[in-house]
Amino acid sequence: MYILVTGTAGFIGMHLSQKLLSLGYMVIGIDNLNEYYDITLKRNRLGILMENPNFHFENIDITDIDSVKKLFESFPFNKVIHLAAQAGVRYSIENPFAYLDSNVHGFLTILEACKDYKVSHLLYASSSSVYGNNKNKLSETEDANSPVSLYATTKRSNELMAYTYNHLYNIRTTGMRFFTVYGPWGRPDMAYYKFTKSIIEGLPIQLYNYGNLKRDFTYIDDIIKGIMLLFLHEQDINNKQPNEVYNIGNSRPYSLNYFINTLENVIGKRADRIELPMQLGDVVETYADISKIRDATGYKPKIELEVGLTNFVRWYVDYHKEK
Length: 323
Fold this sequence. Notes:
It comes from Bacillus salitolerans. With 323 residues, the protein is an alpha/beta fold.
């Protein structure tokens, strides 16, 4: 079975591709290797994947309609897992057009290819940011029509586009709202990565909203577990509900201050904290209600924060050769 993973050089894309390869799938990965963050990190992730003979990589931008079409003509994809996107909430305020290009135009290109080449199931990455500043535990039944960043708007647009293509062309689609993913090989633009770098190097860290934020930090292995359960339970889930969206999170939000305290203990060094006002486009709290994916697949996250951060810091020190 040929599986297409878009954004395969990304954080989640790399880990997911590794999992699929370990199960014997033929994985075709595409990525445009843009310079939003360190391209060397992306190439190193790819280097690990390319050690497996069942992995094939193409440097393709998902907005390039002709290249995407050629790819779908070359491989008989049974399923597509679409992770490629312009990431980052705050960057979307500075560079809004990059998000429309990649996250809307690019997603439309993938939808059209899935329609034209009869792909049986499209799984795609959405985000907890679609909930905006909704309070309390965030359920898929909650309103998700008040996003507070353009990034979130594009992700909500993806969900609506998937609904339309399911309605018009009977394409099975599954949206996955990820909640603050962290772990080894993570993204350098994420707060936990920046905090780790600054604490180790003795630099101050910036805590927005004066540290009064909560996040449903979810370890990468638990995210991959959720994706694979939806991937493998596709027949059971999608027969009656061919277009669905699921939260994939830890369902246990941690305050930013608790997170920093735990990170300090793991590193063995105190942080110099600078408290700042809330940033534009940010949300106060994320808290995943995971009852829907749990009831559908048996999903249950297992990795505790201290374990996840220990794994991340160990990887970070080894990767960056910090002393």
